[in-house]
């Protein structure tokens, strides 16, 4: 792959990327996906801040087992505690995609890097056990997507 950068004050304020290729390849698709992620993340939060009693705590995504919504609030479930987050679930999903989080259900986003094992439930749901001992369920409509991400080694980061 060749990279050519042309910096000139005469160009518009908004950067433009042109990809030239003889055919659509996985490499081109990966580049486009990465550029779209960069474009989306410009307006999104850079850090996760949770409420802990009277104060605020900065969280590392790698410490979180899963994020869920309940009673119109959003919480981060960690190894031994649950902290409230001030972002909406869809905002967190967008932010956490780069950290191997994927949707488990309408109200849960799970960290694939913290999964220990699975068990199939009789109703078609998947019970996910995290390394911390926590567990959460993947609803039937999201099981196929989770399986695909596990097989491909994806989850958001470097897909």
Task: List strands and helices in order, with pairings.
Layout: H1 26-41, E1 48-52, E2 55-59, E3 64-70, E4 73-78, E5 82-85, H2 89-96, E6 101-105, E7 108-111, E8 115-120, E9 126-130, E10 135-138, H3 140-152
Antiparallel strand pairs: 1-2, 1-5, 3-4, 3-7, 4-5, 6-7, 8-9, 9-10
Question: How does this model look, in words?
Answer:
β3 (64-70) and β4 form a beta hairpin. The strands form two sheets. The protein has a seven-stranded antiparallel sheet. It has a domain at 48-152: LytTr DNA-binding domain (OB fold (Dihydrolipoamide Acetyltransferase, E2P)), CATH 2.40.50. Mean pLDDT is 83; it is low at 155-159. The chain has three helices and ten strands; from the N terminus they run αβββββαβββββα. The protein is an alpha+beta fold. InterPro entries: LytR-like, LytTR_DNA-bd_dom. This is LytTR family transcriptional regulator DNA-binding domain-containing protein. One of its GO terms (molecular function) is DNA binding. Residues 48-152 form the HTH LytTR-type domain. Keywords: DNA-binding.
Q: For the largest beta sheet, what order do the strands appear in spatially?
A: 2-1-5-4-3-7-6
State the name of the first-level CATH class of the domain at 48-152. Mainly Beta
**How far apart are the first and last residues' alpha carbons, in Å?**
19 Å
Helix content: 10-25%
Features:
159 residues; alpha+beta; OB fold (Dihydrolipoamide Acetyltransferase, E2P); 7-stranded antiparallel sheet; 3-stranded antiparallel sheet; 10 strands; 23% helix; disordered C terminus
């Amino acid at each position: 792959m060749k990279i050519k950068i042309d910096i000139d004050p005469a160009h518009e304020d908004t950067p433009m990327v042109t990809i030239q290729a003889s055919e659509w390849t996985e490499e081109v698709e990966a580049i486009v996906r990465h550029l779209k992620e960069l474009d989306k993340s410009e307006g999104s939060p850079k850090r996760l801040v949770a409420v802990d009693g009277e104060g605020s705590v900065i969280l590392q995504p790698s410490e979180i087992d899963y994020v869920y919504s309940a009673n119109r609030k959003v919480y981060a479930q960690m190894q031994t505690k649950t902290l409230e987050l001030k972002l909406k679930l869809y905002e967190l999903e967008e932010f956490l995609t780069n950290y191997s989080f994927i949707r488990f259900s309408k109200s849960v986003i799970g960290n694939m890097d913290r999964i220990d094992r699975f068990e199939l439930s009789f109703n078609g749901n998947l019970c996910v056990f995290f390394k911390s001992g926590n567990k959460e369920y993947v609803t039937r409509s999201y099981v196929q997507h989770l399986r695909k991400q596990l097989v491909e080694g994806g989850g958001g980061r470097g897909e």
